Amino acid sequence: MERKYYELLSNRYKNIGEVTSEIINLEAILNLPKGTEHYLTDLHGEYHAFRHLVKTASGSLKIKVDELFGDILSLEEKHNFSKLIFYPEKILEGLKLNEYEKAHWYRVSIKRIISIFRLVSSKYTRSKVRKALPDEYAYILEEFLTLNSKDFNKEEYYSQIISTVIELEIADDFIIKTVNLIQQLSVDKLHILGDIYDRGADPHKIMDNLIGHHDCDIQWGNHDILWVGASKGHLACVANVLRISLRYSNLKTLEEGYGINLLPLGRFAMETYGGDPCKEFLPIANSDELFNEKEQYVRGQMHKAIAIIQFKLEAKVIKKRPEFNMENRMLLDKIDQTKGTITLNGKEYKLTSNNFPTIDPKDPYKLTEREEEVIKKIAKYFKKSDKLQKHIHFFFSNGNIYLKYNNQLMFHGCIPMDSEGTYKCFNIEGEEYCGKELMDKFEKLARKAYFKGSEKDLDWFWYMWTGEYSPLFGKEEMKTFERYFIKEKETHKEKKNPYYTLREDEGIILKLMDHFGVLKENGHVINGHTPVLAKNGELPIRAGKKLLVIDGGLSKAYQSSTGTAGYTLIYNSYGLRLASHKPFKNIEKAIEDSHEIISVIQLVDKAERKKVKDTETGELLIKSLKELRVLLKMYRNGSLIGRY
After folding, report:
1. How far apart are CA 216 and CA 54, in angstroms?
2. pLDDT of the residue at 295
3. Which of 22, 254, 530, 583 has its CA 20 to 30 A from that of 552?
């Protein structure tokens, strides 16, 4: 069997020369600096803020500008050049210079851009950089890569290249494409720790961008998994997606992003809830979209209509799946419509609204014919949306429920624990699963449901969105009904899993790292999901610097509570850095105010400079090297005959 493997390997490396060449190449790669990794989480549809973080590499590109130009440029010059590196199109559009001034500006700017390009390229092999070069400027950029400041014989040669670029009036295009290349090369790998969807208007644009990214992975969030279930036509998931979209007045994603027709719901809601002010269901003012009072009223009706449908559909799942242990979330049968009250845990509460025209007190969980018609029709639109199907498929080809990479453990929510720090076990299909085994089991269930699951299998997507033992959710229950219909705040409280308290303890996090095979030295657990309330004194760095919680409010809906616009991480060859961000308003504001684009960065861990050989990629290359050396030996002793 081993000989067969090397015979197959010899088809790729046909002789001694090809084997030795690849060995030299791999040995050299192992000694390059470790590539930069960028960690983001809880994007929640905020496309422009997301693009800003990617373009700036969370402020690390600004650091490179400062390091490269030091005292050569003034602070203002470095700010202005950074803006060109981040938003070249906007800066070029705004140039107001005469012909002579513009030619000088182009020459100076292109030289500085080439300097940054050479710096970010220095971490990679020439071959990898060459593959990334824009075709029309590949020759020029390769020439500049070989630039030697001491080579006076070629000084005029390089100068003439720049002059010709300006003369041919392609300087704008050259700058834009070279800057895009710099942005790409500044980060080797992008990690997204979940919750791309809901609240913000443009998750579909984020997904398009991620699909086009050179190397990214996704750790699933509970909002993401809800959309996965909706894409498969699971009715309870579809209803939840619709309700959340209406709650944040965010129909752009559904209608424009994925072509999902909401007219059936709109017609039904206006007919059924006409005259109902639906005050509890008026949209949260979180959208940039403008709409008048009548539109707001209609959206409130649609919101209430789908919420009632959701409660009925969820009850159907709960009845069908007793193993979920969620009977306490069936609340419609506890309503007394004659009194306008609901009884929970032996206590009676007054409802904020008592207009339930589609709830039959004798059979409260039965959908009316119209409700069933509406939800099934819209579910078909979800299943038929090609763009949505493409995006969700990307979740499974590039995503996982957790990821251990380069000794960092990433997951969106929690590892279910009890109050003593013992991993809580959940019985699935007759077997108990806890800790890492539970995470692995949920991933298998999700993949089975997505690729070949029955309607019953699809229920797991809904459970992973809202179930007590779901590592993506991490609470005992979701109090959706209570938040809409009961004023008393005591009923709104959602009890978090003890993990969220225990994770402050370094011992608990070290135990967790060991459980997942993460080494203590330079290892960390990285979470999203729960916003860090910086304005209340909460910190993202916890448990003796072993836990990093980086959901700090990228979503506009959270920023009033968090006091920041989120945290991100940069892990380069020198160590791990945490960046905190100001709220991103728009590109124009970022360009107008130099300080708007600056991220506050602090060092989390510093170590000896890491090389590729110290990474997981390096482990694979070392394995390949061992195999190549065996193949070389077989060629040299005649066990295999080389071909020329």
Report:
1. 12
2. 83
3. 254
Q: What pLDDT does residue 217 have? A: 97
Neighbours of 263 (CB within 10 A): 11
In the numeric block, which tokens belong to residue 289?
């979209």
Hey, what are 379's tokens?
Answer: 């579910």
> What's this model's pTM, rounded to 2 decimal places?
0.93
Amino acid occupying residue 538: E
Q: Contact, 578 vs 604, CB < 8 A? A: yes
Could you give the CA distance from residue 462 to residue 460 in angstroms, rounded to a whole number? 5
* Order of strands, sheet of 567-572, starting from the edge strand that comes earlier in the sequence: 399-400, 216-219, 189-192, 37-40, 567-572, 575-580, 600-606
d(CA 261, CA 494): 33
CB atoms < 10 A from the CB of 314, how many?
26
Give me Rg for the CA atoms of the chain.
28
Decide if 269 contacts 334 (C-beta within 8 A): no
- In sign, the C-alpha dihedral spanning 312, 496, 565, 601 is negative
Q: Which token pair is 218?
A: 């996704």
Q: Is 210 exposed, middle or buried (0-12, 13-18, 19+ CB in 10 A)?
A: buried
Query: Structure tokens of 454?
Result: 């029955």
Instruction: Give CA–CA dist 6/367, Å, rounded.
Output: 63
Long-range CB contacts (within 8 A, 24+) of 616-625: 616/405, 616/406, 617/35, 618/30, 621/26, 621/29, 621/30, 622/30, 624/26, 625/23, 625/26, 625/27, 625/30
Q: Which of 210, 260, 241 is nearest to 394 (CA)?
A: 210
* Cβ contact 43:192 at 8 Å: yes
Q: Torsions phi, psi of 346, nearest 5?
A: 80, 0
Among candidates 99, 222, 109, which has minimal Cα distance to 174? 109
- Give yes or no for a contact between 68 and 116, defined as CB atoms under 8 angstroms apart: yes
Q: Which residue has the tokens 């720049």?
A: 162
| CB distance 32 to 612 below 8 Å | yes
DSSP state of 276: -
Token reading at 194: 């979940």
Q: Torsion over CA of 285, 291, 297 and 298, rounded to 10 degrees?
A: -120
3-class secondary structure for 324-366? HCCHHHCCHHHEECCCCEEEECCEEEEECCCCCCCCECCECCC
**Token pair 């690849």: residue:** 22
The packing angle between helices 155-167 and 171-186, to 10°, is: 120
Q: Is it the case that residue 290 has pLDDT exceeding 60?
A: no
How far is C-alpha 597 from the chain's CA centre?
21
Average pLDDT over residues 271-297: 80
Both tokens of 534, joined, read 């910086």
Residue 214 is encoded by which pair of tokens? Answer: 């050179």
